[in-house]
Amino acid sequence: MQGAGSRSGRVRLARPCENSSVGIQTQLRRAISVFRFVALGYPVLLGALAFETLVRPVEAALLVVVLAAWTGAVSHRYRHRGYEPKALYADLAVTAAAIAASSWALATDGVPISVGPWLAGSVLAWAAAWGRRSGAIAGAVVAAFGMVFRGGVHESTVNEAALLVLTGFVCGHLVRLGVKAEQRMREAAERNAAARERERLARDIHDSVLQVLALVQRRGTEIGGEAAELGRLAGRQEEALRALIRSESYRHPLDGQRDLRELVGRHEGADVTVAAPATPVLLPAETARQFAAAVASAVDNVREHCPASTRVWLLLEDDAEAVTVSVRDDGPGIAPGRLAEAAAEGRLGVAQSIEGRIRELGGTAAVTSAPGEGTEVEMRVPRLTAEAGGAGGDARRGR
Q: Whole-angstrom Cα distance, residue 76 to residue 80?
């Protein structure tokens, strides 16, 4: 049956047991139901015109009643439960049985009358549920029964076979295109809504938080002493917030990827030097976000625990095998065993915010430090793991 994965570039059609697709497929179910009832007019009209020559007129009338009842029952089931596998298989089986019954009941002087367009109903249902390949297969099955019960291979049955197979294939292809277009429209609407929300948040931040931070920085500088240090920290946070607001990488990309280089570049400032490749370092959006959060935690640790004069160097490297970010500072360093002590005390900044995030992405984080020699945090995520994590990371985190 036809499905799709993100890597193959094919759109994922709804499985028959799913009821989540409420757009184009809901409309198709209704259209196919209308078509099937209208198509019943074909055997009714032919039977009425040739009623006097029918070999079994009573059985022919009963057959039409049964077809109408089945059409109503299966259309109702599709409408309320979606395309369930057992209903689809039953529909195809009833269609095959209708071909056999019509060759016996709808016959004039030994020549069977086809139930015509009604046969395409189950083929269209298969195509709408499972795609073009399944639609073509269903059409071939119905056509094969037609050849068996209506005199073998001749012009009439060959034409009918071609129409049924093409109908299933084309309908399935159009459904595929329609679902893909519907997904793109939904994603575009979500991006627009997210962009509007970001603009609203940016206005709120500018009108409240940024102004307060600017005031704290200015007043702290005027007062001096410990207040000046508080003002300096407020100024850093103000710069970081402004960079976040104006960063283009904060926008949701069309292809679901983020540029880690731009996310890391937000930290560049008077005391932070960033070195990165000249070309974008693209990762799945969630992977890039988690990686950038670990880097931000490492930079924040320097600002929280080191003197104001401490400088930070941030190096981003990208090769065919892995993406590596190193955060190095010239601060006082970390005493041996201090990180283990902090973790035992419940202070999990490095253990969770840095090592935990990188480990969850399938990578490694190493902290190298010595008293008086500064600290270096190296975070490395393999390329294949990072790309796979973009598709499955949310599921691993239980989202």
A: 6
**Phi, psi at 257, each rounded to 5°:** -115, 155
Distances (CA, A) of 103 to 47, 53, 72, 80, 116: 13, 14, 23, 33, 12
CA distance 317 to 281: 9
Q: Which of 131-140, 146-155, 168-177, 340-349 has the lowest mean pLDDT?
A: 340-349
Give the model's pLDDT for residue 87.
Answer: 93
Q: What residue segments make up the domains of the chain, in order of their start?
A: 7-246, 255-396
Least confident of 12-26, 105-119, 157-171, 216-230: 12-26
Average pLDDT (176-193) is: 83
pLDDT (tens digit, 9 = 90+) per residue, 279-309?
Answer: 889 999 889 999 998 998 888 888 888 888 8
331 vs 377: CA distance, rounded Å: 13
CB 150 within 8 A of CB 107: no
DSSP structural state of residue 53: G
Q: Give the sheet arrangement for strand 375-382, strand by strand.
A: 272-275, 312-318, 322-329, 375-382, 364-369
Tokens of 272: 């932070």
Gap between the Cα atoms of 128 and 172, Å rounded: 6
CATH entry 3.30.565.10 includes domain 255-396: yes
pTM of the model: 0.49
Task: Please give the sequence-ordered ranges of beta strands (E in DSSP) within the chain, or none if there are none.
Answer: 107-108, 111-112, 257-259, 272-275, 282-284, 312-318, 322-329, 364-369, 375-382
Q: Which residues contact 396 (CB under 8 A, 6 or more apart)?
A: 360, 389
The helix or strand, by DSSP H or E, that contains position 246, with its residue range, turns out to be helix 226-246
